[in-house]
Amino acid sequence: MELKLGTIIKKLRTERGITQEELANKMGVSYQAVSKWETNTTTPDIAILPQLALFFGVSMDALFSMNQDDYIERISKMIRDEYSITPENFVWAERYLKGLLSEEKQNNTARTLLVELYEHRENRDSLAGGRLCEEGLLIEPSNIALIGKLTRIREKRNEADRLIKFLETLYSKNIQNIAVIDALISAYIKYGKYDNATNLMSSSKKRAIFDVYKGDIELAFGNQESAKSIWVSAALANDNDSHLLFEIAERCNKINDTEAALKLYQQSYEVAPSPKEMDPLYAQAFLYANIGMKDSAIQMWENIIKALADDYGIKDGECVDWAKREIENLKR
What does the alpha-carbon distance between residue 324 and residue 301 come to, in Å, rounded to a whole number? Predict the structure, then answer.
């Protein structure tokens, strides 16, 4: 069913989330004039029509005949053709599609478009996030948090070559920087460039973590027992290195050696200086739950609540609430 011009203007305005007064200011008319348009009492001056079409991002024809297909096509074109959807247009499209789904729950065209809309925003945001990480690392190469975020972004976007190229450039300017060296070695191993990883370790000052990386390479070639042997030896030789113990625990968990993983997670936590990193406790809680040891998992979440209070002075808020929810879920 085709709608009258005033009804279309009202629909476009409400979907954009603006008031009659705001639209009036944009068009250079009074809000009373907009009210009369929307009730189809009067129509906009013909000179204003192109301005209205431009403001709402629709064609002149669409202004006079805007139906559901027009809206769907408009949103689809916006997702397909626009690199960066403006916040206003995003809100408008999201609101329209959600409204359509509330009226037509079986409308998978609208549902698919809404998913694509969210994917478009996520893609744009990850591009921006990746650039910000790179800018930050050029200023502060040792920023482990930024390295981790950049690695996750590039992995999610399947941009291995881009990650490695950037880290190689960063390394060329910071050849003694431990954080950069570790990040580049890890990337080489993750993406199958084992010779590059080995050569970089050989040309760098030897550190205990290199044994962990050597085990990673063995595992990549299918030599699980050899990898485990390297990791266990590294753990025994560095039993006060909390970070290294945690890294080895993660690898034991990966190869489903649950007993070794739990032992190393706990050891990693015990030898850590205060305030202690919480990751080993969270890892144990999840691992106990995964293997069906609910009582042990509950005890670990209770330990987490206590550690948050003792080490960080956190006695309420989302961190504590999350732990309590996990305990309740495990008790069911």
Answer: 8
